[in-house]
Design goal:
The complex is a heterodimer of chains A (648) and B (521).
Chain A (H helix, E strand, L loop, with lengths): L1 H13 L2 H4 L2 H8 L4 H9 L1 H23 L5 H11 L16 H7 L5 H15 L4 H16 L4 H8 L2 H4 L5 H15 L4 H17 L2 H16 L4 H17 L2 H7 L1 H8 L4 H9 L1 H25 L4 H9 L1 H6 L3 H20 L4 H11 L2 H22 L4 H9 L1 H8 L2 H15 L4 H18 L1 H15 L5 H18 L1 H14 L6 H25 L3 H17 L5 H14 L5 H15 L5 H29 L4 H21 L1
Helix pairs in contact in A: 1-5, 4-6, 5-7, 6-8, 7-8, 9-10, 9-12, 10-13, 13-14, 13-15, 14-15, 15-18, 15-19, 18-19, 18-20, 19-20, 19-22, 20-23, 22-24, 23-24, 23-25, 24-26, 24-27, 25-27, 25-28, 27-28, 28-29, 28-30, 29-30, 30-31, 30-32, 31-32, 32-33, 32-34, 34-36, 35-36, 35-37, 36-37
Chain B lengths: L5 H5 L3 H12 L2 E2 L23 H14 L13 H20 L8 H13 L20 E2 L2 H16 L5 H4 L5 H10 L5 H17 L4 H19 L5 H13 L7 H14 L9 H14 L4 H10 L6 H17 L2 H19 L4 H8 L5 H9 L1 H18 L3 H17 L1 H46 L14 H45 L1
Parallel strand pairs in B: 1-2
Helix pairs in contact in B: 3-4, 3-5, 4-6, 5-6, 6-9, 8-9, 8-10, 9-11, 10-12, 11-13, 12-13, 12-14, 13-15, 14-16, 15-17, 16-17, 16-19, 17-20, 19-20, 19-21, 20-21, 21-22
The chains are: A mainly alpha (648), B mainly alpha (521).
GO molecular function (chain A): protein phosphatase regulator activity
Keywords (chain A): Repeat
Organism (chain A): Sparus aurata
């Protein structure tokens, strides 16, 4: 490796760039008054190192960086990140320990992001140390950090124990354990928090005996810390520790602490338990789950703080899914479902909407009969909830129920809920329901849709909020994809075309947007759907409408005609393009309004580029289809290109 | 479309007021009562003042115990009678400890602190509004305030009672007590924080043994606020207490206190919600500087390090604080920081945000600062001149332009010759800057070329270490397989080219440097 490293450094120096880029000049850049320039230079630190060669990087650049670490945090952050990738630039693994001094300083900086990045880099380069170097260079650094005066270095040390522990001798291991123990009872809560958050990770690299003797006592102590911010981190560690221990030890070593955490007086700790419940459940296994976690979960679902209830409600489905199969149904029916029923009418809307986002998943677990008897009333209640988010969450998960009992069971309540959401005063709610329309349409079928929902979809096209009109337009296209071209021709196209004469120019523009998308949709699918006739219809029916709109009195409509023509031009056959589109665009290009003029000119001149990109796209698409078709497309593309050239 | 009017649909913003109104209606929170089982009904005890003096102590204790019962204030109709009894009793207790002498016998201390702890120490409820903005939103008020207020009042009277003996009380008012008290400063209810402030101040004054502990815990709260959560409601109150604590520091300052200034107070300036406690913070900083002027340099450098980059509102606050510092600065200290400071001020006066520019230009209305500038005009004028000259021509805001003219005039009067020199060399200076800029680009371009060539070379040479270099070369992977030989050929040439340009550059750089020194003279 050394030889290779020398070789790496060799050529650079051989070219004599010592004189070329004196370090002074580079360092000048790193010292520039402008932070942005300093930042840029630091981000290109690898370039500088490369220019200097490995030796000068080690002897000049790194000492400079180590000495002058006092800068904007943003610069330090970039530096900390760079140094993590510097191994080759200092001459490979053999010299990687040269990077430790600057990173050590960075690991003591106050700003958390800088420190975390420095620790991340240290963890990275620790892997590149040989076992000997790890003990000679790396481990002493960890010790120094662990016994630093200011809390920052001690917090950083917490993240480094686990990376060096597995690769050092047993005496050093004992020291590391001792240091970790000390930090777990540090007198600043910041350090205890850092230690608690790394407890699980450290436990994983420890020998099982030490997990039992050392980690458990630390875990118990941290879990009863005076600060709730420390206690809640112990809950996280609980998951990893429980995974490591054999089943028979869990009851005595972990469960007392976990039980205590589930009933902690601070809601933050209980929240954490609720949030990690599925992981905890997996870690402690089915027996303890049955005996301990089920009652704990019931309590969390009934917690006095809404935050905790919401976190627990989020886990209902996962928890039920992971229950042991033999007693799953019984536990759910007797213990969980009663709590769930109460949550349906909770006072807090976040709790209800958290529940609504998972409750439908229970139907697959409980099967058809139980769903109809017990869950359906809950679904229906939530569909009528006063909070739109709850209703939305139910509707967005309809597919789970559909599999079990079919959506028809719900349709009676579903429809009013959808209609109400569709007319909600908040446009974001309307937007959300629009996004579920294609899904609903797929599940309810075309007849039901035509009968009940079609009018809604059309009404959104003339909504007062642009975002809704836009979403409604896209929604229509998705429906067309689902129900096919014929359906579109019969139900949508006439209405959309009708809007072209609407007195409101915003509605006229919606027509334009719809037609544009419709056209493009057809173009993309023509070959796959083998509905070549579509092109004909679109040209005959729609093009005149669009072209007529170029005479609109509102400039916005006119320049949107130009923009649309630019988009759909490639789909049109060359005759139409030449005979109809071109004159219109040319007329628009002499419009009195400067925006119209601009977009018309764009459309005329932009065509070449757009066409080319489209042809390319088509070619890519088509390369997946049959070779024969490929030839067809190729022909088409060349004819299109020809048209373009003619136009130009 | 049904009941909702069109205007409501169009404008999402009108809804905000409605939402706010809803929020304000239910903005009361408390997780206090939940820690206990259902309350038992209270029955009224006889009045303390009516009891014979021998039984008064016993009755006092009974009343204290009675007040340990907690009630649900969310439900405004339950336990009305008991709530009223507790309220009356608390009132009576407050009155009793504040007007009577000799009531604080040793045996009463544990009962008193027990009653206080039970009532006020609780886990604060989660905020109703997760993105609570203290400047915009109404705070969530403590629902059980009718009782808690009286308990706080009682605690305060207890501490202020002339018979109060810290030597006995320290057994109960200990580190744990203080820690819990400090956690309550996070309460959203400003009334509660106000009480806590006075109480903590009294405790700090009376319990000498707790002082270091209190300071350390406040440190921890601030550090957590700055670097971890960015959320703590009581920062302003704690700073207010600290302001008077700092005032009482003995000289010379201990290193612990200096560390607090540099590692806690200065970084506090980075907080997003600085405006909520800036006045108190600036007061603390100035207090420190009045105690020990030698701290001026590190403080100013610290402020410059954390100078806001994008938030103009904060920048105005920083400028205000700098002016407060300059008001008390010693001329010798001023000399130490004038260069970096005025470089920043020169950026501020050129700020396109007129409030920032205006705030900075107001420095020239300050007689003391003006005298400091005059003393050091040969250093400051060259720093300020460029910005002032430029914005006098370019700033969009006429008020700023007018202010700049005045400032330029003042500066000109201070040193006319230097001013003339700077005016005449202004253009040349700008050109030199531009040239330097170009040289920098050139340098980096050359470095970039070198890097590209080197990575290819390295790749070429290090086949023995597959994959090691994948991090360093981004786009060359593709080329080098095809083009190794040609790259090697071109490399030499480009390095040569770089050599030529850099040879040309070097004398220029040194020339600029020497010129700039002559300019300064």
């Amino acid at each position: 490796a050394a030889a290779a490293a020398a070789e790496v450094g060799g050529p650079c120096r051989a070219d004599g760039d010592d004189s070329l880029y004196p370090i002074a000049v580079l360092i000048d850049e790193l010292r520039n008054e402008d932070v942005q320039l300093r930042l840029n230079s630091i981000k290109k630190l690898s370039t500088i190192a490369l220019a200097l060669g490995v030796e000068r990087t080690r002897t000049e650049l790194l000492p400079f960086l180590t000495d002058t670490i006092y800068d904007e945090d943003e610069v330090l952050l970039a530096l900390a990140e760079q140094l993590g990738n510097f191994t080759m630039l200092v001459g490979g693994p053999e010299y990687v320990h040269c990077l430790l001094p600057p990173l050590e300083s960075l690991a003591t900086v106050e700003e958390t992001v800088v420190r975390d990045k420095a620790v991340e880099s240290l963890r990275k380069i620790s892997q590149e140390h040989s076992p000997v170097d790890l003990e000679v260079h790396f481990e002493p650094l960890v010790k120094r950090l662990a016994s630093g005066d200011w809390f920052t270095s001690r917090t950083s040390a917490c993240g480094l124990f686990s990376v060096c522990y597995p690769r050092v001798s047993s005496t050093v291991k004992a020291e590391i354990r001792q240091h970790f123990r000390t930090l777990c009872s540090d007198d600043t809560p910041m350090v205890r928090r850092a230690a608690a958050s790394k407890l699980g990770e450290f436990a994983k690299v420890l020998e099982l005996d030490y997990v039992k003797s050392d980690i458990i006592s630390l875990f118990t102590a941290l879990a009863s810390d005076e600060q709730d911010s420390v206690r809640l981190l112990a809950v996280e560690a609980c998951v990893s520790i429980a995974t490591l221990l054999p089943q028979e030890d869990l009851e005595t070593l972990v469960m007392p602490t976990l039980r205590q955490a589930a009933e902690d007086k601070s809601w933050r700790v209980r929240y954490m338990v609720a949030d990690k419940f599925s992981e905890l459940q997996k870690a402690v296994g089915p027996e303890i789950t049955k005996n301990d976690l089920v009652p704990a979960f019931q309590n969390l679902l009934k917690d006095c703080e809404a935050e905790v209830r919401a976190a627990a409600a989020n886990k209902v489905k996962e928890f039920c899914e992971n229950l042991p199969e033999d007693s799953r149904e019984q536990i759910i029916m007797t213990h969980i479902l009663p709590c769930v029923k109460e949550l349906v009418s909770d006072t807090n809307q976040h709790v209800k909407s958290a529940l609504a986002s998972v409750i439908m998943g229970l139907s697959t677990i409980l099967g058809k009969d139980n769903t109809i008897e017990h869950l359906l009333p809950l679904f229906l209640a939530q569909l009528k909830d006063e909070c739109p988010e709850v209703r939305l969450n139910i509707i967005s998960n309809l597919d789970c129920v559909n599999e079990v009992i079919g959506i028809r069971q719900l349709s009676q309540s579903l429809l009013p809920a959808i209609v109400e959401l569709a007319e909600d005063a908040k446009w974001r709610v309307r937007l959300a329901i629009i996004e579920y329309m294609p899904l609903l349409a797929g599940q309810l079928g075309v007849e039901f849709f035509d009968e009940k929902l079609n009018t809604l979809c059309m009404a959104w096209l003339i909504d007062h909020v642009y975002a809704i009109r836009e979403a409604a337009t896209c929604n229509l296209m998705k429906l067309v994809e689902k129900f096919g071209a014929e359906w579109a021709q019969n139900t949508i196209v006439p209405k959309v075309l009708g809007m072209a004469n609407d007195p409101n120019y915003l509605h006229r523009m919606t027509t334009l947007f719809c037609l544009k998308l419709y056209w493009l949709l057809f173009f993309e699918n023509t070959f796959a759907l083998s509905e070549a006739c579509g092109q004909d219809i679109t040209t005959k029916q729609m093009l005149p409408v669009v072209l007529k709109m170029s005479n609109d009195q509102v400039a916005n409509v006119r320049f949107n005609v130009a923009k649309s023509l630019q988009k759909i031009g490639p789909v049109l056959d060359s005759n139409a393009l030449q005979a109809e589109v071109k004159p219109v665009l040319e007329k628009l290009a002499t419009d009195t309004d400067m925006d119209v003029k601009y977009f018309a000119q764009e459309a005329i001149s932009g065509k070449v580029f757009h066409l080319l990109s489209l042809c390319k796209k088509t070619l890519n698409d088509v390369s997946r289809i049959l070779h024969v078709r490929y030839l067809c497309i190729n022909e088409l593309c060349s004819s299109l290109l020809f048209t373009v050239l003619a136009l130009a | 479309m049904s009941a909702i009017s069109a205007s409501e649909k169009v404008d999402g913003f009108t809804r905000k007021s409605v939402r706010k109104a809803q929020k304000q209606r239910k903005s009361q929170g408390s997780s206090q009562y939940r820690t206990q089982s259902a309350p038992v009904e209270l029955s009224p005890l006889p009045q303390l003042k009516d009891a014979p003096s021998t039984e008064q102590q016993e009755l006092f204790t009974q009343k204290l115990q009675q007040c340990c019962m907690l009630f649900d204030f969310f439900d405004s109709v339950t336990d009305l009678k008991s709530k009223e009894i507790k309220r009356a009793t608390l009132n009576e207790l407050v009155d009793y400890v504040s007007t009577n002498r000799g009531v604080l016998v040793e045996s009463a201390y544990p009962e008193i602190t027990d009653m206080i702890c039970t009532n006020i120490f609780r886990t604060l409820p989660p905020s109703d509004n997760p993105d609570f903005d203290p400047e915009e939103d109404e705070p969530t008020l403590e629902a059980s305030w009718p009782h808690i207020q009286l308990v706080y009042e009682f605690l305060l009277r207890f501490l202020e009672n002339p018979d109060f003996q810290p030597s006995i009380a320290k057994r109960y008012i200990d580190q744990k007590f203080v820690l819990q008290l400090l956690e309550l400063f996070d309460s959203e209810d400003p009334r509660e924080r106000d009480f806590l402030k006075t109480i903590l101040h009294r405790i700090y004054g009376k319990f000498l043994g707790l002082r270091a502990f209190i300071r350390k815990q406040i440190n921890n709260i601030f550090l957590r606020f700055i670097y971890e959560t960015e959320h703590f409601n009581g920062v302003a109150e704690l700073l207010e207490i600290l302001g008077s604590i700092i005032n009482g520091f003995a000289l010379p300052l201990k290193s612990e206190h200096k560390q607090f200034l540099m590692k806690v107070l200065i970084p506090l300036h980075t907080a997003k919600a600085l405006s909520l406690f800036h006045a108190q913070l600036a007061y603390c900083v100035v207090q420190f500087l009045e105690k020990d002027p030698t701290l001026t340099e590190p403080v100013i450098r610290g402020l410059l390090k954390f100078w806001p980059k994008t938030c103009s509102q904060k920048e105005v606050m920083f400028l205000g604080e700098v002016e407060e510092i300059l008001d008390v600065i010693e001329p010798t200290q001023f000399k130490k920081i004038q260069e970096p400071l005025f470089k920043q001020i020169s950026k501020c006066v050129a700020n396109p945000h007129f409030q920032v520019a205006e705030r900075a230009l107001y420095f020239w209305n300050n007689e003391y600062i003006l005298s400091l500038i005059e003393e050091n005009i040969d250093k400051i004028l060259p720093i300020m001149f460029g910005s002032l000259y430029r914005i006098s021509k370019e700033h969009w805001n006429p008020t700023i332009v007018a202010l700049v003219y005045n400032v330029l005039k003042t500066l000109m009067e201070m040193n006319c010759t230097l001013f003339d020199e700077l005016t005449s060399s202004y253009k040349a200076d700008r050109q030199r800057e531009k040239k330097k800029e170009q040289e920098r680009d050139e340098l980096w371009k050359n470095l970039e070329e070198l890097r590209l060539n080197n990575t290819t070379l390295v790749q070429n040479n290090s086949h023995g270490l597959p994959g090691v270099h994948n991090n360093n070369n981004n786009n060359n992977n593709n080329n080098n397989n095809i083009n190794i030989s040609s790259n090697n050929d071109t490399q030499d040439k480009s390095v040569d080219a770089a050599a030529v340009t850099s040879d040309n550059n070097d004398p220029d750089v040194s020339e600029t440097a020497s010129e700039s020194t002559t300019c300064a003279k």
